[in-house]
């Protein structure tokens, strides 16, 4: 099977998969470039939702279709559920919706960049359904799974 045919055959199963790690410098306007391969994986609206990291000092970036999937699970809560409303308010007010320009650059609001400690350089880390943006120094401190621990990681996430 030719490489092109093989790629077309598996394409639907990996649609939107963000994999790999990319280091980028922010330009003077604090824009960063999304890798072209990742932009090609975004189907539907060419928009990304940027949220603050939940338990780590980074940014989580979700394509619109993934955000819709996650919002559907939030929709199961009653509007009378005060705790769910507070959560949604907190998350929604801190989330940024960005589109990329013709060169694949996005501009995330300063509040989010500053909260993640991102100043002039950023590391984009694939996380399959979404990706994270890190300050390079903070990513080193947070650590990644060592090769010897991959088996445990695979079991933990049910891969």
List the SSEs and their pairings.
Layout lengths: L2 H8 L10 E5 L5 E3 L2 H6 L5 E6 L6 E5 H11 L7 H13 L1 E4 L5 E3 L2 H6 L5 E6 L4 E4 L1 H7 L7 H8 L2
Antiparallel strand pairs: 1-7, 2-6, 3-4, 3-5, 4-8, 7-8
Tag the structure with descriptive keywords:
alpha+beta; 23% strand; Chemotaxis protein chec; 7 helices; globular; single chain; two-stranded antiparallel sheet; 6-stranded antiparallel β-sheet; 37% helix; 159 residues
Task: Please describe what this structure looks like.
This protein has 159 residues and is α+β, with helices and mostly antiparallel strands. The chain has helices spanning 3-10, 36-41, 64-74, 82-94, 110-115, 136-142, 150-157, and strands at 21-25, 31-33, 47-52, 59-63, 96-99, 105-107, 121-126, 131-134. Mean pLDDT is 84; it is low at 1-14.
N-to-C CA distance:
27 Å
Count up the domains: 1
Q: Write down the secondary-structure element order.
A: HEEHEEHHEEHEEHH
**Secondary-structure class:** alpha+beta
